[in-house]
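input
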Amino acid sequence: MKSFKIIVGFALAFIVSIINGISGVGYVVGGEFEISFQAAVENEAETDSRWENRKDDDKLFKSPKDGLAALSLLLETKFGRFGLLLQVLCLLQFIGGLIVIFRSSTKAAALIFLILVALAGILVEVVGANYSSAWGVTNIFGIIVSVTLIPVAINMYGATIREN
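output
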């Protein structure tokens, strides 16, 4: 079981989390976000005083005055919000993978954390496949790793109980 645990931890920390991180960046700055980007800029610029008119090569365009205005644009689209969620999950999966790799047993709090990371991973893969309208290899691999994380976490918690 120890080698299986290390494989699951490695896959979670160094493969699935990195794929979700890259996907999150894609959802935030590219892909289908660009479709609604222009409409979101126009809508935000009309209602928010933090936007200003700028002129570049005789073209007038609107841009945010500060980082908060730019962040509000990201959070206005569902793809931007999903991309930020993927970035947070990327960090949580990396931490969860390191816990699985380097710890032989876990306490109840770590068990709950790992199970929540696994359930969030499954949910994000299903939602991501729905947004992209296709099931890819990375979605399926993410679900498999997330599902196998649950029995690994339970086994690690069982090791704690057996030690005490």
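quick obs: The mean pLDDT is 83.
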